[in-house]
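1st attempt posting a full record on here, be nice pls
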Amino acid sequence: MTDRTNGSLRVNGATLHYEVRGQGPLLLLIPGGTGGAASFDGIAADLATEYTVATYDPRGMSRSTLDDPDAEQQVAEHSDDAFRMLELLSPGEPAQVFGASSGAIVALHLLTAHPERIARVVAHEPPAVEVLPDAAEHRALLTRVQDTFRTQGLMPAMAVFSAGLKKDGAAAEPKAELKLPPQAAARAEQTMANLPYFVGRIVPGFMSYAPDIHRLEGLSDRLVLAGGQDSRGELPYRSAAFLAERLGTELQHFPGGHIGLTTHPAESGELLRKVLHTGGPTSLL
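the predicted structure (as tokens):
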């Protein structure tokens, strides 16, 4: 088992908890949603046989504390946190970066802000809905989510949010009960503890973010956009697919849905390794 080193990094307005495994070129894993460093436990050890794998709890999540718990959250500040991690762990050397969901939005901003520090970014389903032709509809969704959170509370707001992420016009399909790996199931309590901050601060700050598409066009050779095989048509998948088409690149498909790295860790880790090696879409076949 690969040894893990924990540390803390002081950044503007927060103290970040981070974890490092392995040796080799730096691979920074940026979690999304309510996940923290632990959300990559299923893939980090295997990748650490080849990379120095670093991940962290985003500011305000889990063990990364905010100086001001009520501070508004901005993508640019979270991106600067990721940049500080690169400066700490890979000074002067370009790094590989993987971001999931809201972490993928951070990774996109990091690429445009500090391209000299990035060898490659793999962005899995960034919910950058401002790039979509029907962005106004999704702005209205965000308003409904925040209004519901304020007037009815957390779980009704989550219900509105989840319904808005589903496939366009599709009735909710019955799904088999999702069985999470034991490590992921054990994190459920922390995930729930992070939900109010996620809904109240991350969702409005991140889903209103518009990536610099013109800048990304000039950096597209270092960017792989990805989506889940099982989340085709859902809102974060649509954003990733639209960006890939706009940039003239091929969308990489990972196993599972939006949280495929949690539900299919072995297959996802293997595919991520292949993508990092080839620099573009590939498959497990």
